[in-house]
Amino acid sequence: MKSNSLWKDAFYRLSKDKLALCALFIVVIYFLVAVMSGAGWIASSWSQEVGASNLAPSLDHLFGTDIFGRSVFQKLIRGTQVAMSVGVAAAVIAIPIGVILGALAGYFGGWVDDFVTWLYTTFSSVPNIMLLISITLILGKGIFSVYVALGATSWVNLCRLIRGEVMKHKEREYVQAAGAIGGGHFRKLFRHILPNVGHIIIINTSMQFQVAIKSEVILSYLGLGVQGEPSWGTMIDDAKLELVRGVWWQLAGATIAMFLILLAFNILGDALRDALDPKLKGK
Amino acid sequence: MTKYIIRRLLYMIPVLLGVSLIIFILFKLVSGDPTAVLLGKNATAKQMADLREQLGLNKSLWLQYLDVVKSAFTFDFGYSWSTKQEISKMILQGAYPSLCLSVPAFVISTVLSLLISLVVAYYRGKGIDLFIRVFCIAGMSISALAYILFFQWFFAFKLGWFEISGFEAEFPFVISYIALPAIIWIVLSIGPDVRFFRTVILDEIYQDYVRTARAKGLPEVTILLRHVLRNALIPIITYVVIQIPSLILGALLLENFFSIPGLGGMTLNALNSSDFPVMKAMAILSSVGYIIFGLLSDILYTLADPRIKFN
Amino acid sequence: MKAAVLLIGLLCLIISCSKDRNFDERELHLISPEKIAGFDPIQASDMYSGNEIGKVYEGLFEFHPLKRPYELMPNLADALPSVSADGLTYTIKLKQGVLFHDSPAFKEGKGRELKADDVIYSIKRLADPKLQAKGWWLLDDKIIGLNEWREKNVAAPATTYDEEIEGLKKIDALTVAFKLKKPYPQFLYALAMPYAFIVPKEAVEHFGKEFLNHPVGTGPFILPVFQQSNRIVYTKNPTFREKLYPSEGEEGDDKRGLLADAGKKIPLVDKIIVDIIVESQPKWLSFQKARADLLEIPKDNFDSAVLGGKELAPELKSKGIRLFANAQLDVTFFAFNHDDPLFKNKKLRQAMSMAWDRGEANKLFYNSAAVEAQSVIPPGLGGYRKEFRNPFIKYDLDMAKKLLAEAGYPNGKGLPAITIQTRNETVSRQIIEHFAKNLEKIGITIKVGMNTWPELVNKVTKRQHQMYTMAWGADYPDAENFLGLLYCPNASPGSNGSNYCNQDFDTLFKTATLLQDGPERSAFYEKLNETVAVDSPWIFGFHRTKFYLSQAWLKNFKFMEFNHSQFQYLNVDLEVKKELSKKF
Q1: Residue C310 lies in a domain
Q2: Are B83 and C37 a contacting pair at CB < 8 A?
């Protein structure tokens, strides 16, 4: 009941923040584009030639054409689908693992903490890029391995943050008080502590979303990204060779597409944080 | 305290065992059979079989895992498969260029971010807060690859302010090689840093003790620097210290594009040539670094916040 | 305000930190696009390692820097060898007074004279089973007694070099006799390759495992210590023997100014600085800033360097930069795995071949400068016939559709998707994307499999692929090196990665390889090349062209396929460099 009003309140505050609404609008648009492209309603003919090779942007071809004469704009749309799905998949894998392990470890301490700490220390000790690369190599290349690899690497950070925060809150008066009036462990943990660390999840997810999108670029640069489908990563990778010969539109297109969504996600994450943070209430 | 440190140092053992296991499993699956690559395009089957024996690939998996564990504890990494160089030597030679780039870039970006986030926190909610935040976020919303391509072309080539690529160990020439990649590093890391620092500073600003201090009539700047920063320092230190081990690995893309002969490029090369011993060495090294700096960050934690006790 | 001043001040400081250019010493600035593993000749399997090793080490023979077609000339050997009538015994006399570089490995640090023992030692080292040399295939099963010696030492705790081998005899202090098991017409080429360069025993033993970082050769340049860095600096070898710049070359070399230094003592430059730059953008920008004297044009910078595929861009021309375009001895291909029953179907192979628009691919990827490969042998080698046309490499969709239907897959119906394995490089990916786009038109689905180099090699040697694509570059100027790619006994893990087997081809190939160079052998090669082409064992791609840009002050550059010894002949005109540098 209490948290219900918190969220209501948050939405009310969010609706007053014009910048955040803009950001939300952009995110929604991107998701729509991704879904429509995924359903094959738009940009399904991205692989068709629409003109000569490497045409500069014009009214006919908004972002020009690539080396095979395909429309860069259509490739961008198709790439949106890849990018959004990568971000979502990574978050879907990482959040449950990170939150649950982190909360349990921070709250219970003892051997649970030892085990979780051991697990994430071990995982985060292996350089991220090596984990990413080896997982994509093992699972075979393709979008699925990119999902798993990004998910497997991004829970660690969240887990550590949640654990630290839960540890801090465990000591605070309100939790002690909840304990004193007879709240069970899980009630204390999920009812009292987690809502107070929720902003960490949100900030971390908005961060992780962009890390995922950026990692896709790095993986594409290494030739391990999505195969047989245009992605922003492969487009930027193409551009590394094209730029000096003056073909800048693939880079520009992919960079703008990426820039907008990352910017929107970051602003939205910040706004959500401000809106959701219980301590900020009434300020 | 000493007891705690000893306990934490002993803790390295299970972590190293875990790391060895991950490394072993992952790279065993990835590297497959390296002999074809090691022997070149005209190898014979006989030659490959001999080499497999020499590299110990015919040993049982258990023994091969023990080999990984052994090198994790002795730091004896042996020789690279692809370059035949002694790995500890390769690492020593690569560490200097990597650190030349990463340490200054890291220090500058951290200090700069802290300053910016204090300013932002001071003006919270005002136009300037919004502007700087959006600016920082914008900075990190562009792919590193795009920065590299553009900055190298524009600043190094068109304007000629920096060397295009390469590395020279000698001071002060090293600056002209390192400056541009360092700037890119800073631009990329200021965004996330400022966001994080601002978050933790704002967390503190709304605590009760700050209200008390304000009620006492202390000026806002004093409150910010003396009280808020002191408490916010705990998560900030954790955040910063934890990042230090990753400096060892350097910046993969930056090193590659600016031809800096560091560890990042070495690792990338190893990955591209299935050089298992080198990957193993780098993974082990960074994990040891991670553990040591994790310990360091925990000790700093106590010094800054006496509420957390060790048992 | 203060901050701005500070920032500008800092910037000035950084800019002032650049080193000034050196116009007093003859320095040669080169770029190597790949990391160098080390300086052990027996492991120099790639061209770029070979290039570096060739600056410090030398072989018995080398390719003439100017004459074309490629011609061997004696280097450490005093003359070309005398060969016995049966073609099995090669007697080689060494030059007198050739000194190894000064090194702590030698007594009193002074380099000693080269002897016949060094040749024998170096060849044995190539065969040493403990070292697993990448170049062993060159001499595998060639020299009498060498394989037996190798076998004996596989199990031994340490390799014993003392034992005399029948096929590897010292006649006197400066003369060696090689005895072969069977005719091996490519033998001298083998001796000219970096694998067979001569190393002194003392250095190998003194430096042990660190030998690869302390090159001690007889070559024109010295490098006391090699460090894993991105810059290698060589200096002129002060004790280098009297070796002169050749006074004759190919016709027209005189006019091109390539004989201006004839008769001068080499090396002509005092210092060579090699920068290792992997990515093409910094490579290209560095050259344009005159940080390098010579540049192999990265494919993708071609358009900005060369207008319309012919002429140099004006801003480059005005700086005196010159363009060199040279046909390479190589072939690119899509190989089928002939183990796969699918590809036993010749009509399918031919249909796929004919559905690929090579003209467009040439334009997109090779700036229309590559030659469409009719078969395996590239132009410039005996066995290549200009007039020969392979009917199945023509782009003809109707024909392709017809063949596909005859193969049993009308409009691709019933044909599974085919995966082509390639390297994880941008251009490789794009080439397959292009191929896939073409084959879609006749109803065939192609998928891309991206691999690191080791993965790709593994898949090919273990036959775990449907198709793969690669390029093969000549090891030496003999078509045997190319035809061998389709020779059944070379099937995986050998160089015949497509596992193609054709008995008629094999019999003919075996006969041809035993022949010495000459019109008879060329006729054999032609026949082999042309009969196999029609069978479409691969989808033939291109023979590529390499483009180089050179600064105006670089003298004596002439494209060489086997260029490891080329750098000693290059020269730098300091006057021109000083003058033109203002323009950069």
Answers
A1: no
A2: yes
All structural domains of chain A: 40-258 (1.10.3720.10)
**Contact assignment for A223 to C437 by CB distance below 8 Å:** no
**C480 occurs within a structural domain:** yes
Rounded to whole angstroms, how far apart are CA atoms A127 and B279?
A: 10
Q: Could you tell me how many CB contacts below 8 A there are between chain A and chain B?
A: 139
Structural domain total, chain C: 2
Residue C334 and residue C202 in one domain = no
Determine which helix (DSSP H) or strand (DSSP E) holds C311, and give its type and residue range.
Answer: strand C311-312
Which residue type does B30 have? V
- Residue B52's nearest CA partner among B66, B36, B63, B67 is B36
Cβ distance C457 to B164 less than 8 Å, yes or no, reads no
* Residue B291 touches partner A, C-beta closer than 8 Å: yes
CATH classification at residue C176: 3.90.76.10
Residue type at C88?
Answer: L
Q: Find residue C448's DSSP bridge partners.
A: C420
Paired sense of beta strands C330-336 and C467-473, if any: antiparallel
Contacts of C422 in chain A (CB under 8 A): none
Which residues of chain C neighbour A241 with C-beta distances below 8 Å? 280, 298-300, 426-427
- Residue C443 domain-assigned (yes or no): yes
Q: How does DSSP classify residue C466?
A: S
CB neighbourhood size of A58 (10 A): 11
Neighbours of chain A (3+ CB pairs under 8 A): B, C
Dihedral, B183, B185, B186, B190 alpha carbons, nearest 10: 150
How close does chain B come to A221, measured CA to CA in Å? 9
Q: Is C143 helix (H, G, I), strand (E, B) or coil?
A: strand
Report the distance separating Cα C113 and Cα C100, nearest Å: 6
* Enclosing domain of residue C511: 330-543
Does the beta-carbon distance from C40 to B84 stay under 8 Å?
yes
Beta-ladder partners of C332:
C471
Residue type, C178: F
Give the DSSP H or E segment for C267: none
Nearest to B280 by CA among B27, B57, B36, B84: B27
Alpha-carbon distance C312 to C287, whole Å?
15
Q: What is the CATH number of the domain that holds C451?
A: 3.10.105.10
User: What tokens were used for C316?
Assistant: 């480059």
Kindly give the confidence (pLDDT) of every residue in chain C, 584 residues in length, as a single tens digit, with 9 standing for 90 and above. 566 666 676 666 666 656 666 677 889 999 998 888 889 999 888 888 899 999 999 999 999 999 988 899 999 999 999 999 888 999 999 999 999 999 999 999 999 999 999 999 999 999 998 888 888 888 988 999 999 999 898 888 888 898 999 999 999 999 999 999 998 989 999 999 999 999 999 999 999 989 999 999 999 999 989 987 889 999 999 999 999 999 999 888 999 889 999 999 999 999 999 999 988 889 888 998 888 999 988 665 666 666 656 678 777 888 889 988 888 899 999 999 999 999 999 999 999 999 999 999 998 888 788 899 999 999 989 899 999 999 999 999 999 999 999 999 999 899 999 999 988 777 888 899 899 989 999 999 998 888 877 778 888 888 889 999 988 989 899 999 999 999 999 888 788 989 999 999 999 999 998 888 888 999 999 999 999 999 999 999 999 988 899 999 999 999 888 888 889 999 999 888 888 887 77
Question: Does any domain span residue C561?
Answer: no
